[in-house]
Amino acid sequence: MKKKRIKQKEDKKTDRKHGNRTRKAILGILSVLVLLCLNSCGRELEEREFPDTLVIRDSALPFEKSLQTEQDKSSKYLDYGQVRCVLLEDDLAEDDEKLGEVLLALEKRPAFSRNIYFFTADGKALEQQEKQKEESQDLTGFYQKSTDHKREAATLGSLLYRLHNGSGEHKILKLKEEDGKLVPQNYLNVLKKTENENTAKKTKTTKTTKTIHGIEKQTTKETADQIQQGIAKEILRFHVLANSDSEEDQKLKLEVKDRLVDYMKDILDGAEDVKETKKRITENRETICLVAEQEIQKQGYTYPVSVNLEKCYFPMKTYGDCTFPAGTYEALRVCIGKAKGRNWWCVLYPGLCFADSVNVIVPDEKKQELKNILTEEEYESLFDWREDDYQIRSGFLRLWRKLFA
After folding, report:
1. Total domains, the chain
2. Within a domain: residue 6?
3. Is the domain of 267 the same as that of 390?
4. Adjacent-strand bridge partners of 183
5. Rounded Cα–Cα distance for residues 44 and 176 (Å)
6. Which position among 95, 189, 314, 379 has the lowest Cβ density within 10 Å, counted as fewest Cβ atoms?
7. What is the Cα–Cα distance from 136 to 57, expressed in whole angstroms?
8. Are 237 and 131 members of one domain?
9. Residue 379: helix, strand or coil by DSSP?
10. Is it true that the peptide bond before 350 is cis, omega within 30 degrees of 0?
């Protein structure tokens, strides 16, 4: 018995030794893997450059080749996912064909967001911006300083809409160099060719498009404007502007948005039309403002906040599979602090804000509400824009959810 107990103790010691060795081996492997991941991530970030302003000069080279040339000259990979502004040389912006080539090239690259602002400038101003490559001047505020600027804001989305649909005069803010900085000068008319041809013919030039139902229809510049204005009369948008683009301010914006959406759900429940929705908001505006203030304070900030119903320009925006054309809309506008950061938006009436905001899907019942308040042409126009692009994106989303749900 004594020998047996001694043998059992020795076996236990051996098992513990093996167990310790196994655990150490596993920990060692995990440590190596973690270090490899950290090193590879670090190298990846170090090997990338994130320009926030893209300067595009008038060149004999096709734009795609110009981008490749810039990449070849750089020692790092140029990641355009953070670009917020495009600065065009004046001569390029005034050439419809060249500008169209640039817009179509940017459209093909997913890295370039549809809400990138566009500006033009002469060679001297472009040189000034390029000199400040490490600390380039933030240009986004130029479109946000006044109502006029907001109305005329030129984005990749709004310019592409103009290019594909030939609807509405479009202007880009022209900048000039002054005391070592870029400042607004005036507006430059762009994509004028279609308009001039229409004026010369003195007829309504039509364009054949295809609806989601496969029905061909004829649209004109006047028709497109009428469709946008018709949609704008029947909906109310919700617009929350962050104090700045810092990570903290953007997070605060979403917290305020979530709190207000949750609060207004009960206030707006049962509102029969956009008129009733605006009436309820007007009656509760001060309370809505107070709720926003309380959420800001709860998150540890002291920013002032304003809440108003006002008309403002929106570039083309997509919510789920519905795309709302660029133009002037009335919106409940919540401005946090300086309101110079990226904004969040949705449609308050009909209540798309209260739909599936996580997956950004417009439910069938909400589509039916839109169908009830819009004309057939207005409703179908929400699905006409970039249908193929939507199918690609929605297919990707379905795959993503299948893999990670």
Report:
1. 2
2. no
3. yes
4. 176
5. 37
6. 189
7. 17
8. no
9. helix
10. yes
Is 41 part of any domain?
Answer: no
Regarding whether 140 and 177 lie in a shared domain, the answer is yes
> Radius of gyration (Cα) for the chain, nearest Å?
27
Task: For residues 272 and 376, state if they share a domain.
Answer: yes
* Alpha-carbon span 236 to 247, nearest angstrom: 28
Element (H, E) at 151: helix 147-151
Nearest to 52 by CA among 112, 104, 101: 112
* Distance between CA atoms of residues 194 and 306, nearest Å: 41
Q: Which amino acid is at 274?
A: V
Structure-token pair, residue 11 = 């076996």
Answer yes or no: do 169 and 276 share one domain: no
What residue numbers bound the domain in which 85 lies? 49-205
Letter string b/e over residues 3-29, b meaning 16 or more CB atoms within 10 A of that residue's CB: eeeeeeeeeeeeeeeeeeeeeeeeeee
Q: Are residues 196 and 272 in the same domain?
A: no
Question: Is the residue at 25 inside a domain?
Answer: no
Alpha carbons within 13 A on the beta-carbon side of 75: 1
223-236 per-position pLDDT tens digit:
667 787 888 888 88
Collapsed DSSP state (helix, strand, coil) of residue 141: helix
Tokens 């804001």 belong to residue: 153
- Check whether 367 has a pLDDT greater than 50: yes
Residue 361, pLDDT score: 59
Within a domain: 324: yes
322 and 188 both lie in a single domain: no
> Over the stretch 258-317, which tens digit does the pLDDT of each residue have?
999 899 988 888 888 888 989 999 999 999 999 999 999 999 999 999 999 888 777 777
Residue 203 in contact with residue 194, Cβ under 8 Å?
A: no
What is d(CA 234, CA 371) in angstroms, rounded to the nearest whole number?
Answer: 11
Tokens representing 319? 């919510």
pLDDT of 112 over the 60 cut: yes
